[in-house]
Write the structure tokens for this entry.
Amino acid sequence: MTAYLCGVAGVSRSGYYAWVKAEPFRQEQAYKDEIDGHLIREHFISLNSKAGALTVKMHLERKNDVIMNHKKIRRLMHKYNMVAKVRQANPYRKMAKANQEHRACPNLLERKFKQEEPGKVLLTDITYLRYGKGQWAYLSCVKDGATNEIPAHVLSASLELRIVEKTLEELLRSMDYNVHPEAILHSDQGMHYTHPVFQDRVKKAGFTQSMSRKGNCWDNAPMESFFGHMKDELEYEDCQTLEELRHRVNEYILMYNTSRYQWGLKKMTPDEYRSHLLTA
């Protein structure tokens, strides 16, 4: 009967007996998967179901002292249907066209974001946040290319020039007005950054201004990446007031700077990596 059934199934008798013999191992493996899957799920849920395998791996190592291969984490996340929520591209975002009095700057950075000196490469941009009953808010941020830290951010209900002026002021305060002698402030060619008033303030503050090539988001990819991850991870659309939204954004950026482990920062947080670079 065994030989007959193996023939019907299209398997060899030796293969069938090997499969039967391995049953205890499969049960043991399934039990281990269940234990590890439960631990992974705890971190996945604590991260609002918006974390991938590498983020979960860093939290396991830092929070539980558990070393687990990222491929195994990815396999177990797939096995137990832990699918991270991902952002969708916004097809309606448009770049404002500068008028004739505005002046674009050359791309001095050339995508050399990681220069291992805090405060040397600073990236900036503005993103849109929709909340409440169709209201819009605008978030202007600066990101340190070396540490991934967000040293300055401003949330506003207005897209007037003041939003980038306030961001620059906050950046200078965060640096104690001690600007790196070779500091570069890099942005896209948006109307705020090409405005002569803003460019004059940037120059007086001690920064050299650099801009992405027109229509090339890769030239400012780390800043775009931060906004994308923030929108994936931050629950903000149910905020009813600008102040409530501001509170959540402030909390998220504080968490990002001080508690979010990052694979590209040797599994450190931005604050920890900044201290690491300064010590080194």
Q: What stands out?
A: Residues 125 and 140 are 6 Å apart (CA to CA).
